[in-house]
Amino acid sequence: MQRISLLSLALVSAPALAQQAPAPAPEDNQIVTQGEDIVVVATRLRGQVDAPQPPILTLDEEDVAAYGAATIDDLLTAISPQTGSGRGRGGSRPVVLLNGQRVSSFRELRGIPPEAIRRLEVLPEEVALRFGYVPNQRVVNFILKDDFSSTTLAGEYDMPTRGGFADWELEGGLLRIDGPSRLNLEAEIEKTTLLTEAERGLSDPDEAPTVSGDPDPAAFRSLIDESRQMSLNGTWSTGLGEEGMAGTLSLNGAITRTDTRALSGLDAVLLTGPDGTSEVRTLAGPLVRDGRTTAYQAGFALNKPLGAWQLSVTGDGSFGDARTLVDRDADVTALVAAAAAGTLDIAGPLPVPGSPGRDIAREKDLALGTLTTLRGSPFRMPAGEASLTLDAGFDYDRTRSSDTRTGRTTLVLDRSTISGGANLSLPIASKREDVLAGLGDVTLNLSAGVDRLSDFGTLSDWTTGLTWKPTGTLTLQATYIVSEAAPSLGQLGGPQIVSRNVPVYDFVSGDTVLAAITTGGNPDLAAEKQRDVKLSAEWDLPFLDRSNLVVEYFRNRSTDVTQSFPLLTPAIEAAFPSRVTRDAAGTLVAIDRRPVTFDEIESSRLRWGLNLSGEIGGGDDEARGQRAGRDRGERQRGRGGPGGFMGRGGDRPGRWNLALYHTWRFTETATIAQGGPVLDLLGGDALAAGGVARHSFELEGGVFHKGLGARLRGNWTAPVTVSASGAPGSSDLRFGSVFELNARFFVSLDRQEKLVAKYPFLEGTRVSLTVDNILDSRQRVTNEAGEIPYAYQPAFRDPRGRVIGIDIRKMF
Description:
Blueprint: H1 2-17, E1 30-34, E2 37-41, E3 57-60, H2 61-67, H3 72-78, H4 80-83, E4 95-98, E5 101-102, E6 117-123, E7 139-144, E8 147-160, E9 167-178, E10 181-192, E11 195-196, E12 222-224, E13 226-239, E14 248-272, E15 278-306, E16 309-327, H5 333-341, E17 358-376, E18 380-381, E19 384-385, E20 387-403, E21 408-429, E22 441-453, E23 457-471, E24 474-485, H6 489-493, E25 497-506, E26 511-519, E27 528-540, E28 548-563, H7 570-575, E29 580-582, E30 588-592, E31 596-616, H8 621-628, H9 632-637, E32 654-671, E33 678-680, E34 695-705, E35 708-717, E36 720-722, E37 733-735, E38 738-748, H10 753-758, E39 765-772, E40 781-782, H11 794-797, E41 803-811
Parallel strand pairs: 4-7, 26-30
Antiparallel strand pairs: 1-2, 3-6, 4-5, 6-7, 8-9, 8-41, 9-10, 10-13, 11-12, 13-14, 14-15, 15-16, 16-17, 17-20, 18-19, 20-21, 21-22, 22-23, 23-24, 24-27, 25-26, 27-28, 28-31, 29-30, 31-32, 32-33, 32-34, 34-35, 35-38, 36-37, 37-40, 38-39, 39-41
């Protein structure tokens, strides 16, 4: 509460602290002609982020065009090696900014075509603190063109080379940008068809019926669920005051409906006759699980200057209604009794049992949140202006769930969170200000925050960091982060759902069994405490423009860690015996996989990467002028018309880039309970199927020239061995290395001038061919005898395999 008062004080005093609003930043580089030479004078582009940490990656519009991305989502996927955080906290998506300002959610950017992007910046995690976020993810800043208009239609169809299922997607969008005003509408429908185990040649011999003519359960158990998703999304933004000088206001709304259908196999029964003979019979009619989720979302963002300070207020709300219908097991009591009495031929036709009905699990989630930040300079130091960000927020989450299977009455969980924090950046040394100039540029960063949770009490966090730039091409950073985190409401109170006939490898027996798996919430979870260290260096390479080397070291330590129930190794079963059910013969029959609390998890790793880029061919003066900033009106006009990216004119050079990242894990340990054994996750222990690989690589690169482009994206993971119990019949498992390589080939027909002149309807069209998992590689899992356990058949690990897709996109 005290931090909110600090923010209120800052809001009142900001006009008094401000001297005069600075003039708008120049919109581009300035071109100065000296005789026959063209001199480019670099100036800050409006919308760029002002931070002591330099961007890890910067793309201009021609660089963006070289990726051939159809959406911003596709573009973020393409640059995932650069946007991914090695810290190991938070989600996979980076923090996104639009024109250097916060947005209510990523929905505001959905549907914006990449052609509307003027520049893209990827910044390190520490920059997130300046915008009121925790430093868990990197920051991506999208700077849009000032004048752009387009209508887009796109279709995509994907099919695996092994057959069995297909994906297709249709999308339409409209975008209008006029200075600070923006209108963006998008509609999308996606469909995925069902893939069964039988379509991948999977059949468990232990489950196969013993009577000819009985249906095979593998034909009625899905590897990929059938699904359909429809969504509508819209964003409206307007400038406040003359030409938006008084700020901007944006409103967003979206609705999404997702339907799924999964098959869980067949009912089976063991029938024994009066003479003691028996048969395993399967009953016709699959066990079906149907789901429907409807989500309603809305948000707003207000960004407004207050003198020399910048006020941002964002709000986001969502309501989700999820319903799952699960077929009950058939009542086979009468069949068993009739077989035992001799009135039913155990190998003959079986009567159809009556319908047992369906269980229903319902979950309704409400999430509301608002965050207010105030950024500015409270005072000047000898080395430059200090930078201060004050933030205050309120979040409310409510989950209402019920499940007829467990007989539990409706469970309601809610949580309200009041948060406040401050981030202060202090320049210590500066070459430009000639203060301790021998050191270069040094900036100290201090951050602290507090969260008051209605169901968990008070959580706190604080961060300290140092950024040192001894030269113009080398940046060194050190950051220490201390924070606390509470389990989510879903982890605490999600509805319990039982999935039957799930293949599970039993490390004790060395066999694959079909077990009942329980998922849902656990109300007994504790708050997690995190202590992290990050050391990093970024060096701009002297032999290539816009290329750099990034090296990062991370050390994480967490206590009272909320984890999904881990891989059922003997050590895990010994630690959580109540979560595992075995029959009298010791056969594994059920696992309760609701979340658990671990005492401690520690890890350390090094992540380093090379980002290389360059041009292909030359370019005339006009093309060079366009790249440097000349003819800005043409470049910003776009209009989705000729060329999309800067029209068709000019002999522009092509682009190439290569990003290669390597992660080397030094330590990875987990302590299940205080005083208990320590699991070495790099030495044979495991919490998840596949264990933890010591080494992994990420690769992304491509070329683009004269409208033709090719992209490659790959991931390689080192092999891992998971140790067994040592009991008779048990076996270690070796998870082999896996290399997945994806390719995208595309042609922007706008750049084919002769073709467009002959067939004008091709203007604004791009055709792409995608091949995911070119090598059709799948991880191979073997026991000590070199055999593949049934639960680790390659089709279970990756049912899709190689997938070929065609994508056609038309922009008007």
